């Protein structure tokens, strides 16, 4: 039995509210159970210096957690004077994932920055940030197309992410914090709407895993991603 009472292949309730930030070109608040992440997309008429003159656009991300996103207060990283390694790793992951669904030639020499701020954390924050970040990105590109600042749609496909793991000896979909902290194997799966793999992060947290177990988790992830893509599609319709 999962702590939440969910079935092994059951996602937490997912909701995506768009247009939650007035000034951002694209924004949404994604809720996956008790994990809530605010995602915004900001369009900049420039690219990083290494892309100047290439005709290619860029999508990058920043990620952070509010001090009371968890059950105890975490000091703001700005107050500490540096970002934690976990923060840097997650924001790089978000940027890589979202770029996989973007035609950077169609975007042109523009940069879209995706800001993901965790308001409340209960496991799977990076997955929620990627899934919600895509919605903010899609809304921003829709606005750019309407304004004719770009002429070709740069979004090639949906990108979404979900966690899966082995908890209590059973493969489970969409881990919450209680499951994540006790899972023998933990994985994050990032896929496109067409089911293509973007990135897979898997680790043996308390027990090694077999190829068959990994395949079972991927099958669960594919079903979860299909639900998330449907939520994305409804949000941006």
UniProtKB/TrEMBL annotation:
Its EC number is 2.7.7.56. Pfam families: RNase_PH, RNase_PH_C. It comes from the Bacteria. Phosphate binds at residues 86, 124-126. It catalyses: tRNA(n+1) + phosphate = tRNA(n) + a ribonucleoside 5'-diphosphate. The keyword rRNA processing applies. Phosphorolytic 3'-5' exoribonuclease that plays an important role in tRNA 3'-end maturation. Removes nucleotide residues following the 3'-CCA terminus of tRNAs; can also add nucleotides to the ends of RNA molecules by using nucleoside diphosphates as substrates, but this may not be physiologically important. Probably plays a role in initiation of 16S rRNA degradation (leading to ribosome degradation) during starvation. Homohexameric ring arranged as a trimer of dimers. Belongs to the RNase PH family. This is Ribonuclease PH. It comes from Ruixingdingia sedimenti. The lineage of its organism: Bacteria, Pseudomonadati, Pseudomonadota, Alphaproteobacteria, Rhodobacterales.
């Amino acid at each position: 039995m999962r702590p939440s009472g969910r079935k092994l292949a059951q996602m937490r309730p997912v909701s995506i509210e768009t247009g939650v930030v007035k000034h951002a070109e694209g924004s949404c608040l994604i809720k996956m159970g008790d994990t809530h992440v605010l995602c915004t997309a900001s369009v900049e008429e420039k690219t990083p210096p290494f892309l100047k003159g290439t005709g290619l656009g860029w999508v990058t991300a920043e990620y952070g957690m509010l001090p009371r996103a968890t059950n105890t207060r975490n000091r703001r990283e700005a107050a500490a004077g540096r970002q934690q390694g976990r923060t840097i790793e997650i924001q790089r992951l978000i940027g890589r994932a979202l770029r996989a669904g973007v035609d950077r030639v169609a975007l042109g020499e523009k940069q879209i920055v995706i800001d993901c701020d965790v308001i409340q954390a209960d496991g799977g924050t990076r997955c929620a940030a990627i899934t919600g970040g895509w919605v903010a990105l899609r809304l921003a590109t829709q606005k750019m197309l309407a304004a004719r600042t770009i002429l070709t749609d740069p979004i090639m496909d949906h990108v979404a992410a979900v966690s899966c793991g082995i908890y209590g000896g059973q493969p489970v979909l969409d881990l919450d914090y209680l499951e994540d902290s006790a899972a023998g194997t933990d994985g994050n799966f990032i896929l496109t709407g067409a089911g293509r793999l973007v990135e897979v992060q898997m680790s043996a947290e308390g027990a090694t895993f077999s190829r068959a177990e990994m395949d079972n988790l991927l099958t669960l992830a594919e079903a979860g991603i299909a639900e998330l893509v449907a939520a994305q599609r409804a949000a941006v319709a």
